[in-house]
Amino acid sequence: MNDTTSSAPIKAPSRRRARRWALGLVLLLAVLGALTWHGRTLVAPHPERFASGVSTAGLALTELQQTPLAERFLRDFRTQELWSSCGPASLRNVLSSLDRPGERERDLFQGDTLAWLRMAVTGMTLDEVAALAEATGIGQVQVRRNLSKQELRTLFESLSTPGRRLIVNFDRAPIHGVSLGHFSPIGGYDPASDRVLLLDVTPGFGLQLVPTALLAAAMRTQDPVSERSRGLIQIDAGPRDAD
Fold it and tell me: What is the rounded CA–CA span in Å between residue 88 and residue 70?
């Protein structure tokens, strides 16, 4: 004869565990939803707060968009998928401009779900985005900090170098009137007005011409997470990927 009396005590703990998992999942989704809403509020553009030297229209902006570098970016330019994913979005656009298109920002993490989730909640630092870029094998990746305005100008003028790309990391406050760290690639430089073409990856901000001095000030700020100065990532693609 089979003993069936032991099945009842086993089912009850199993049901309790299932309920706890379900409750935990609901709470996690609620927290992520609240963070997403708060994040979108933080990154929303306020054009009335933009610094006076920032241009979002005009002949100079139009002409820079028609340069070879800008055209390589704009043929497949995508805004960030998450409120916190400006770093991966910038890298994804850089890779696409070098004929390495990717469908999702998440693919850059190469299966590291924990790193992707951490980015989704807290964003990324300059060194973390640089490490993400290096892991793609695209070429030489350098983190540049504490650059003078003249050093920045020289670097921006070098954007005609085949395969060279720049991702700037800055505090939006001096430029956009919102105190929030951000990443975006540079799509060109206008030496006549000493302004760069900022390819802003956040929806609603669009393309902008930003004075070099203003961007330099925004880059010479401290990231509260890393406690290090912001700056930029210089990528020099290898011969296979250089344009």
Answer: 19
Query: Phi, psi (5° rounding) for residue 146?
Result: 55, 40
Number of domains forming the structure of the chain: 2
pTM for the model stands at: 0.83
Clarify whether residues 73 and 110 are in a common domain: yes
Residue 86: pLDDT band by 50, 70, 90 thresholds?
very high
Centre a 10 Å sphere on the Cβ of residue 44 and count the other Cβ atoms it contains. Answer: 13
Closest listed residue to residue 202, CA positions, set 75, 85, 74: 85
86 within 8 A of 123, measured Cβ to Cβ: yes
Alpha helices, H only, the chain: 7-43, 59-65, 68-74, 86-97, 113-122, 126-135, 149-157, 173-176, 212-219
Indicate whether 83 and 20 sit together in one domain: no
pLDDT, tens only, 164-192: 999 999 999 999 999 899 999 999 999 99
Structure tokens at 223: 């990231």
The answer to the question of residue 2 being in a domain is: no
Contact between residue 197 and residue 207 where contact means Cβ atoms under 8 Å apart: yes
Averaged confidence pLDDT in the chain: 89
Of 26-40, 98-112, 149-163, 179-193, least confident by mean pLDDT is 26-40
- Do the domain assignments include residue 38? yes
Is 68 part of a structural domain of the chain?
Answer: yes
Full residue range of the structural domain in which residue 170 is found: 51-237
